[in-house]
Amino acid sequence: MIELKDVWKVYPNNVKAINGMTLKIEKGEFVYIVGPSGAGKSTFIRLLYREEKATKGDVIIDTTKLNAIKERHVPKLRRRIGVIFQDFKLLPTLTVFENVAFALEVIEEPSTSIKRRVMEVLDIVKLKGKAKFLPDELSGGEQQRVAIARAIVNRPEVLIADEPTGNLDPDTAWGIMDILDDISHRGTTIIMATHNKSIVNTLKRRVIAIESGRVVRDELRGNYGYEV
Ligand code: ADP
């Protein structure tokens, strides 16, 4: 479970990005975060994996207060939270297999179990056949699927996606949604910031709308609600 209790985020340049946000997301939910540019969506997401620290208030994952985590324990937290981005962020000199294994290897697992787990997640994202390819030999949709595999390889409780379909054509975007849907059905909580109106209005989920750093709408099976 994820909980924000009266969270505020003021950047060093005095921009007030999150202004008193309180909300709960239950285990296994799939939530869209929508809102205009500059609303605070990315900041909200960065607070969830401790890329940013709240200026005031609590961000809580299960019983862990993220503000209280020491810097040296942040990597451990990150293994409980998978993250994907609009621009994939794969390591260009590593193969698909290595990009995914890299996320596991930091825990120093024996290599046979690394191999098994990496192939398991490459199967989930339908890329088993491309394990030896380099990122630039893949399409954008395939690269995003590698990023998803890497994000879920440690079996995180939560998968956070910041505009995961932002760089993809509509058909490819739907393919990514099929995979996120599958991961959601396996019990992972998914939080996805998006501008993709047709996805939000078709694949109905809880919608949390943010404007000026505040929640202005929170609906189960909501709509995108903005013109694009
Ligand atoms: P969104 O993702 O909805 O576009 P952001 O969270 O990126 O919104 O931005 C919210 C506000 O915070 C904006 O005014 C933006 O300019 C500002 N902002 C975002 N990141 C930083 C940062 N690292 N330093 C200072 N201001 C920032």
TrEMBL record:
Query: Which molecular function term from Gene Ontology is one that the record holds?
Result: ATP binding
Bilayer topology term: Peripheral membrane protein
PROSITE patterns tied to this protein: ABC_TRANSPORTER_1, ABC_TRANSPORTER_2
Tell me where in this chain the ABC transporter domain is found.
2-228
Note the InterPro entries from the entry.
AAA+_ATPase, ABC_transporter-like_ATP-bd, ABC_transporter-like_CS, ABC_transpr_LolD-like, Cell_div_FtsE, P-loop_NTPase
Entry keywords, A to Z: ATP-binding, Cell cycle, Cell division, Cell membrane, Membrane, Nucleotide-binding, Transport
List the residue ranges forming a coiled coil, or say none: none
Q: Where in the cell is it found?
A: Cell membrane
Which cellular component, as a GO term, is one annotated location? plasma membrane
Q: Name one GO biological process term.
A: cell division
Q: Which Pfam families match?
A: ABC_tran
Instruction: Read off the SUPFAM superfamilies from this record.
Output: P-loop containing nucleoside triphosphate hydrolases
* Subunit structure, as described in the record: Homodimer. Forms a membrane-associated complex with FtsX.
Family membership, please give it.
Belongs to the ABC transporter superfamily.
Report the protein's function.
Part of the ABC transporter FtsEX involved in cellular division.
Give the protein name, as stated in the record: Cell division ATP-binding protein FtsE
Q: Which gene encodes it?
A: ftsE
